[in-house]
Write a structure and sequence with these properties.
heterodimer; A: mainly beta; seven-stranded mixed beta sheet; four-stranded antiparallel beta sheet; 0% helix; 51% strand; globular; B: mainly beta; six-stranded mixed beta sheet; five-stranded antiparallel beta sheet; 11 strands
Chain lengths: 112, 114
């Protein structure tokens, strides 16, 4: 089954404790991106990747890192999480062009 | 930069027709998409318009007017299961992600009453 898989689904952590949210897609998509969703603010793009080893900042990249060492994986790294990074995070992938984004099921992160 | 405007909430009754509008301001434009998201779920793709006019997919239709920088999603024969958030998104070659990663509006919460 074609899918984007994120882990974990829920995560509660404390300020400053490094964490990684994994994202993997099995559709051989070139384009992957991370969004955060906050009430009233919609989906805001954090980072995106056009291909292996090609990543760039989105609209709200501060406090986040990503890597794209393999085509299928695009982990999101929070080196020193802060409470303002409490949010619902979505990973998405696409073949590009007119093709739609395929989203993972989301990761609800709480930073205390 | 880009900005997209859509109403924050729309309510309707089962069986009715509802229209969710989206206006956008972008440096460039390749197309307008619509996504549906149920509470606690992932956004799922509904439709895409690159050219002016109406695209129909079952009970859902999407319209685009590039000259007016405007589009809408039309939902007919509303069902309770249509209660969800609906997001418009634009593909802008000048935005971060280029034309491949769309920028999303803030979403419209559709509430369908029996």
């Amino acid at each position: 089954e074609a899918q984007v898989t994120q882990n974990p689904r829920y995560l509660i952590t404390v300020t400053g404790k490094k964490l990684t949210v994994t994202c993997s897609q099995n559709m051989n998509h070139e384009y992957m991106s991370w969004y955060r969703q906050d009430p009233g603010l919609g989906l805001r793009q954090i980072y995106y990747s056009m291909n292996v080893e090609v990543t760039d900042k989105g609209d709200v990249p501060e406090g986040y890192k990503v890597s794209r060492k393999e085509k299928r994986n695009f982990p999101l790294i929070l080196e020193s999480p802060s409470p303002n990074q409490t949010s619902l995070y979505f990973c998405a992938s696409s073949v590009g062009g007119n093709s739609p984004l395929h989203f993972g099921n989301g990761t609800r992160l709480t930073v205390t | 930069g880009q900005s997209l405007e859509q109403p924050s909430e729309v309510t309707a009754v089962e069986g009715a027709i509802v229209q969710i509008n989206c206006t956008y301001q972008t440096s460039g434009f390749y197309g307008l998409s619509w996504y549906q998201q149920h509470d606690g779920g992932a956004p799922t793709f509904l439709s895409y318009n690159a050219l002016d006019g109406l695209e129909e997919t079952g009970r859902f239709s999407s319209f685009l007017s590039r000259s007016d920088s405007y589009g809408y999603l039309l939902l007919q024969e509303l069902q309770m299961k249509d209660s969800a958030s609906y997001f418009c998104a634009v593909r802008d070659p000048h935005a971060s992600g280029g034309s491949y990663i769309p920028t999303f509006g803030r979403g419209t919460s559709l509430i369908v009453h029996p």
